[in-house]
Amino acid sequence: MFLETTDSDVSPCPQLPPAAGRRKNLEFEPLSTTALILEDRPANLPAKSLEEAQRHKMEYEEMVAGAKRREMKEAQRKKRQMKERHRQEDSISNAMVVWNNEILPHWDTMYGTRRVRDLWWQGLPPSVRGKVWSLAIGNELNITPELYEIFLSRAKEKWRSYSETSSVNDSESDGGASLADRESSLDLIKLDISRTFPSLFIFQKGGPYHDLLHSVLGAYTCYRPDIGYVQGMSFIAAVLILNLEEAEAFITFANLLNKPCQMAFFRVDHELMLKYFAAFEVFFEENLPRLFSHFQTNSLTPDLYLIDWIFTLYSKSLPLDVACRVWDVFCRDGEESLFRTGLGILRLFEDVLLQMDFIHIAQFLTRLPEDLQAHTLFTAMANTHMVSRNRRWAQVSITLRVQGNVSQ
């Protein structure tokens, strides 16, 4: 059944005039309520006085002028940003040409020159970073890609055997591997991979680099069962995987961990680690006496923050792009640069740290600000002098190891 509508059924409300008619004095639709001050009041309200209308007009013009000033300032900021980005891109592009055409083809004769070292300090172009790291770290262990495949096969076989065991509580040997070894090569690696650069979502299960990272770490535990897997290794391997092919990443990883400083830490050689901490404190007191005294007053020893920094080569504590710059200099200068970086961080945040107590300092140094910029850190590092009583880091470090003190 259909109902007929009559004129009496239609709402008696009059149709509103079109927007253009209501705002005929405006050249555009106002983007915010601030423009409403120019509107005439509704017919059922008293009209604006001439003075009020003029005041509203002036207020609106001031708001528009303020908005234009802000827009201009923002446009200038973006222009400066774009200019700086183009400058950096040009700089990287020019540096890439120099590295590819002049330095890498003549590495043995070029890498120690002043020109190359200066260029190195400015940061390696991403396209050559892995190659330079690989050359600088070297391959004293003479590992080949074929050797990597052998140890990777052993790791896969061990994991396969382990997964087939009925219980992880079974302490019987399996394929020549103890329960502790099997757990370190599977459970601990698996756990650590899930915590490696979690914000990137590329190393976690299902991510494009998950299996690759698992392979490199697993192969290393078979290559060096005397060391096995130690927490923190996953960050080092992950950074290498981002910059090198799989086999080359493993080769560089194994050689890097074979360096004296890394070996001391990953073997947990307490006596040698204490010598490194003592050497660090010599330069800490030399460079930052006030902060050094503040740390001593609060019983804040270097092991509370340096261990995490050294174990991961700062890749866990610093933004990834900044950490890669730190790696650049580490590959150039060796272990000294790791402690110089630590002092640079302390110098950069000295004023903040001086206001903190033990707990807040420890928390701050464990989780550094995410907006930390490479150029500010490297300025602080450049102002850090690795000379104490006319002795450089290597001399102080050796003296501590041999004599046990640096008082002479």
UniProtKB/TrEMBL annotation:
It comes from the Eukaryota. Transmembrane segments: none annotated. The keyword Coiled coil applies. Residues 50-92 form a coiled coil. One of its GO terms (biological process) is vesicle-mediated transport. One of its GO terms (cellular component) is vacuole. It holds the Pfam family RabGAP-TBC. PANTHER family: RAB GTPASE-ACTIVATING PROTEIN 1-LIKE, TBC1 DOMAIN FAMILY MEMBER 12 ISOFORM X1. This is Rab-GAP TBC domain-containing protein. The gene is LOC116056388.
